Amino acid sequence: MLGRVAVTRGGQPAREWGRARARDLLALLAVHDAGLAREAAQEALFPGADPQVGERNFRVTLHALGQVLEEGVARGTFLERGEWLRLRGGPDLSVDLWEARAHLGAPPGTPGRPAALLDMPGQMADTDLEAVQAEAERHAALLPEALASEAGHALRVGQLDLAARLAGRALSLDPAHEPAARALMRAWHARAHPAAAARTYAALRAALAELGLTPLPETEALHRALTGVMREGPGDPPLPAETAP
């Protein structure tokens, strides 16, 4: 997941990289699963370099990546070269970033999706590559959404423990995520833990307050329905002492 980018073969680390930028090139190609123009990859790795110097450095970098990826196999097995560069995925080459994208984009209830989402890291490592930074931001935004939608599905099919785990994980990544909070409140209520549902609501309100926001009307209505708290005036009354977080 673009933490420390690595190549493993049979569960064991591949050979030494030989050139640090080869690792960055692999990250670029993982992000651009359809491929990337050689010129664009060169500019991303060696911005502002003299054309001849940049081309020479890029050629060495591409060779170093090929040595790591294709040790023991024919040239071109996993790495398409030329004016267009591309990783050739398949049964013998898996890219965990691509697998993560597939799980994030799959419909709720897809077999294996809940476990995959729960295992995903919430953040990717810092990088100076703009394309990889954009991928990290996209991932950070999509993962809580996917967890919350999966939690909603788990609730609908009666998997309350799973729903609570999924929603709780989403809130650990984004404490102000209201769909996740509503799912967790429903899960706690269905498991006969009204105090936990109230704590979830209180934590959500606090997280939203830090952003200068308040809960949506549907969240407030759910809180009142689950806890029996009646609304008085423009705001919700304080939670009872025994349900305070």
Task: Give keywords.
single chain, 245 residues, mainly alpha, Arc Repressor Mutant, subunit A, Serine Threonine Protein Phosphatase 5, Tetratricopeptide repeat, 2 domains, 3-stranded antiparallel beta sheet, 10 helices, 56% helix, disordered C terminus, BTAD
Account of the 3D structure:
The model is unreliable at 230-245 (pLDDT under 50). The strands form 2 sheets. The protein has a 3-stranded antiparallel sheet with strand order 3-5-4. α9 (194-210) packs antiparallel against α10. The longest helix has 27 residues, at 130-156. The protein is mainly alpha-helical. The chain is elongated, with a radius of gyration of 24 Å. The protein has helices spanning 20-31, 38-45, 51-69, 96-105, 113-119, 130-156, 160-173, 178-190, 194-210, 217-227, and strands at 8-9, 12-13, 36-37, 79-80, 84-87. It starts with 7 loop residues before the first strand and ends in an 18-residue tail after the last helix. InterPro entries: AfsR-DnrI-RedD_regulator, BTAD, TPR-like_helical_dom_sf. Residues 95-227 form the Bacterial transcriptional activator domain. This is Bacterial transcriptional activator domain-containing protein.
Principal-axis shape equals elongated
**Number of separate structural domains:** 2
Strand content: under 5%
Strand order of the largest sheet: 3-5-4
List unreliable stretches of 5+ residues. 230-245
Helix content: 55-70%
Question: What is the mean predicted local confidence, pLDDT?
Answer: 89
SSE topology string: EEHEHHEEHHHHHHH
Structural class: mainly alpha
The CA-CA distance between the termini, in Å, is 34 Å
CATH topology of the largest domain, what is it called?
Answer: Serine Threonine Protein Phosphatase 5, Tetratricopeptide repeat
Rg from Cα:
24 Å
Number-wise, the strands total 5
CATH class identity of the largest domain: Mainly Alpha
Largest sheet: 3 strands, antiparallel
Count of runs of 4 or more consecutive helical residues: 10
CATH architectural grouping of the largest domain:
Alpha Horseshoe
